[in-house]
Write a structure and sequence with these properties.
Layout lengths: L3 H18 L16 H15 L2 H14 L4 H20 L5 H16 L5 H12 L12 H9 L3 H7 L3 H15 L4 H13 L5 H24 L6 H17 L4 H18 L3
Helix pairs in contact: 1-2, 1-3, 1-5, 1-13, 3-4, 3-5, 4-5, 5-6, 5-13, 7-11, 9-10, 9-13, 10-11, 10-13, 11-12
């Protein structure tokens, strides 16, 4: 049984995920600009519906954390079992968001352990949860873990076990951009590019290999080095990168999921106690 607090955390996570979906232009990622094209509209609608389908699973993760009371092997196993059920529900709703579910699930659980914790404390608790092995996980290696082993990339598991460093960097980028007078859309895009510029995205590695990953990272750095999305040069570099990645069919989905994690924590810090 979930509580009102559990449901609120889940909805905050879903709001962060749908907020990420609404950004434009997102290099190589679906955004709402071209919704006249039927296939694009269907894809975007599917992603929005499947994001909302995460809410029950995320609320169950929060409830599990409150009941367990601390990072532990028991909590890790429960989160894994809930996550696999949530993946199935999301698949029925249209699919997508697997990476975001991993990050948001751990962060929601960590937030539930201490409702008054700040963002850095939440990522530290998430790191402690992720340090335990999920004994109920399938024995067969996932695609992400296989790619991590092949290329020595941290991957989603390594990101969590390091305390979500890219989520923290995205939070710093949000704060810096807002302080400099950026619009909220620009601040969030700068945060996304900050993640893209250094993340060892195993989905990209699988699709494009190391050269493709470096190409995406360099493109994101180029936008930031041009002054970010608030400058004329940065905006032009962003548009060029977006066109390039869409033409290549390369999608930095891992960065999008971690941005959603940052927006979730950012939303919690802005919410009244």
């Amino acid at each position: 049984m979930t509580s009102r607090e559990d449901d609120a955390l889940a909805m905050a996570a879903v709001t962060a995920l749908t907020g990420q979906l609404a950004l434009a232009p997102k290099p190589g990622l679906p955004d709402p600009r071209d919704l006249d094209a039927r296939s694009t509209r269907q894809e975007h609608d599917s992603l929005r519906w499947s994001a909302k389908a995460l809410a029950p699973g995320l609320a169950a993760m929060a409830a599990s954390a409150r009941r367990t009371g601390e990072p532990s092997p028991v909590l890790r196993a429960e989160l894994g079992a809930i996550g696999r059920c949530a993946e199935h529900s999301v698949g029925l709703a249209g699919g997508g968001h697997k990476g975001a579910l991993w990050a948001l699930g751990l962060l929601v659980a960590a937030a539930a352990l201490d409702p008054r914790a700040k963002a850095r404390d939440i990522t530290a608790k998430a790191r402690k949860i992720a340090a335990f092995n999920d004994k109920g996980a399938p024995k067969r290696p996932s695609r992400g873990s296989s790619i991590s082993a092949k290329y020595g990339a941290a991957g989603a598991r390594g990101e969590a076990r390091a305390g979500f460093p890219h989520v923290r960097r995205a939070l710093d980028a949000l704060a810096t951009a807002r302080k400099a007078g950026a619009t909220e859309n620009q601040a969030r895009l700068d945060a996304l590019l900050t993640v893209m510029s250094t993340l060892q995205d195993t989905e990209l590695l699988y699709d494009t290999g190391p050269m493709g990953l470096r190409h995406v990272q360099a493109g994101a750095r180029g936008v930031l080095e041009a002054g970010g999305t608030t400058t004329t040069a940065g905006a032009a570099a962003l548009a060029a990168l977006d066109t390039d990645l869409h033409e290549r069919g390369w999608s930095p989905r891992g960065s999008a999921g971690l941005l959603a994690g940052a927006l979730f924590l950012d939303g919690l810090s802005a919410a009244p106690l």
